[in-house]
UniProtKB/TrEMBL annotation:
Family the UniProt entry places it in: Belongs to the bacterial solute-binding protein 5 family.
SUPFAM superfamilies given in the database record: Periplasmic binding protein-like II (SSF53850)
Gene3D superfamilies in alphabetical order: Dipeptide-binding Protein, Domain 3 (3.10.105.10), Periplasmic binding protein-like II (3.40.190.10)
Organism: Alteromonas confluentis
This protein's name: ABC transporter substrate-binding protein
């Protein structure tokens, strides 16, 4: 018998497909020089601090540093950079002749102003790291840091560090427009559902061939799949396994599946009396059937996660760790040793309190709720009662900040700072942790070791140091890795030269071409 999620997805696909067919019949033909992209992402404002990720992907905004497919850094709006001997000062050389979408020219003063505003808003690192920004000339920017910080250039690749025209800011530096340097500029923005752009012909690099691009928020994976199937969209992102299977039989659509630097993790509040016990965390990890989740639910064998960072993350991934395997026997034994005894109702109790927890997850990664339901079942076999709640993704950082979060299933993006050391320095060096990282974890010895790595000038010791860090995190389990992330996208045969950016910085629209009609 098919599972409930599978039956539900099939029925929903039929309903949505019928609806879209009726809409297709009355939709006017699209411009031959325009494409439509759909994903689950909801741009809520112009501000890069909240929605920069989608404007970066739409190639509206750019940063000083760009990222290659293998995670190495390459020039962006800066042509190069170097540090002093102890990584406390970094000099960036700006690309000359760069125009903003309003026709103004990028220079060092504009870059300083843009970044000064950005540092006053939420960023994925400690903004106090930057003590001062000076401009020795019109094409050079110097950052003086409050500490020695080796991975600083990787921070400058994050979308929150986008370089914007001064005309983007109004009174009190509030965003009134988004005027970037990318190959496409905004013509209309209807948050949170729609972004329209047009080619920017004065782009400093190679301009795109497609004139107009529209982004439409598609809330359900099934809806997005049927949009590309019926010609309502040319590219759709973040498809679930059911949608992928449906599209694979369609000759007019190509499906692309890429392993990306993102890991599906269980976030744990270690201030909770249950989760503060390392034995309980180990038991919860051992009770997971990661192979069943990877092969049975996601239909991608081999993506079981046995550590924080996935393959392709250089020295921060340990290839020789054994694959993860479920052991309910060991999980039950650990829980019993921790004082949790199984009762007749199938739930464990200690001192009259049940082993019951809440888990939140969110909808814009469509597979998460299905995985959470599977975890609920798998943990129940060990005597753990799990209540799963679907929330907005903002509930995770909010719950981290106010302390109400107990557990959360999340797809943690390790591409927002492409150097894993930058992520570790941001999230793994204090009990505070990170909104998408550990919560109330106490390991002062490891915290100081990571900070020391960030200060060291020698690269020779990094592989051994990285292994030590990853092994410690694996042993203590402040987060529980579940699976590595396979991103599924679908592209209409109307387009050619599609490629997927594994660091999810760009939809690479400027590389696309619309096929000539036969």
């Amino acid at each position: 018998m098919p599972s409930l999620p599978a039956v539900f997805s099939f029925r929903l696909i039929v309903i949505v497909f019928t609806t879209l067919l009726s809409l297709t019949a009355c939709t006017p033909p699209r411009s031959p020089d325009k494409i439509v992209i759909s994903g689950p992402f909801e741009p809520v404002s112009y501000d890069p601090a909240s929605s920069g990720y989608i404007f970066s992907r739409m190639q509206v905004i750019e940063t000083l540093v760009d990222v290659n497919d293998d995670g190495t850094l390459r020039p962006g709006l800066a042509t190069g950079w170097q540090s002093n001997d102890d990584f406390s000062e970094w000099t960036f050389h700006l690309r000359e002749g760069v125009k903003f979408h309003d026709g103004s020219t990028m220079n060092a003063e504009v870059v300083r102003k843009s970044l000064a505003v950005a540092f006053g808003k939420p960023v994925p690192f400690d903004a106090s790291l930057v003590k001062d920004i000076t401009i020795p000339d019109a094409h050079t920017v110097v950052f003086t840091l409050s500490q020695h910080y080796r991975p600083f250039p990787s921070l400058m690749s994050n979308y929150t560090m986008a370089i914007l025209s001064p005309a983007s800011f109004g009174k009190f530096n509030r965003m009134t427009a988004l005027i970037g340097t990318g190959p496409y500029k905004i013509t209309d923005f209807q948050p949170p559902h729609n972004i329209s752009t047009i080619r920017f012909d004065d782009y400093w690099g190679r301009p795109g061939t497609i004139k107009e691009v529209e982004y439409i928020t598609g809330h359900r994976s099934e809806t997005r799949a049927l949009m590309v199937k019926t010609g309502q969209a040319d590219i759709v992102y973040n498809l679930d396994p059911a949608a992928v299977e449906m599209l694979k039989s369609d000759d007019s659509v190509s499906v692309f599946s890429e392993l990306i630097p993102r890991t599906t993790l269980i976030k744990l509040n270690l201030d909770d009396p249950i989760l503060a016990d390392r034995s309980v965390r180990q038991a919860l990890s051992l009770a997971l059937d990661r192979t069943g989740i990877a092969s049975g639910i996601l239909r991608v064998p081999g993506i079981e996660a046995n550590q924080l960072f996935g393959p392709g993350m250089g020295v921060w991934h340990m290839d020789d760790l054994p694959p993860p395997s479920q052991s309910l026997k060991q999980a039950k034994a650990l829980l019993e040793q921790a004082g949790w005894q199984l009762a007749n109702d199938g739930v464990r109790y200690r001192n009259g309190k049940s082993l019951e927890m809440n888990m939140i997850t969110y909808a814009n990664r469509p597979e998460l709720i299905i995985i959470a339901t599977a975890i609920q079942d798998q943990w129940s076999q060990a005597g753990v009662k799990l209540n799963v709640h679907m929330e907005n993704s903002s509930a995770i950082p909010s719950g981290h900040t106010d302390g109400t979060l107990q557990t959360a299933l999340m797809a943690r993006n390790f591409a927002n700072i492409p150097d894993p050391l930058g992520i570790l320095l941001a999230d793994f060096t204090s009990e505070q942790g990170g909104e998408w990282g550990p919560m109330n974890w106490q390991n002062p010895s490891l915290f100081s070791r990571i900070e020391q790595i960030g200060r060291e000038t020698s690269e020779a010791s990094l592989p051994a140091q990285a292994r030590d860090v990853i092994r410690t995190i694996n042993d203590d389990l402040p987060l529980i890795p579940v699976v590595y992330y396979m991103q599924h996208s679908a592209v209409s045969d109307r387009l050619q030269h599609f490629s997927f950016d594994p660091y999810e910085r760009s939809f690479r629209i400027a590389d696309l071409q619309i096929r000539s009609e036969p």
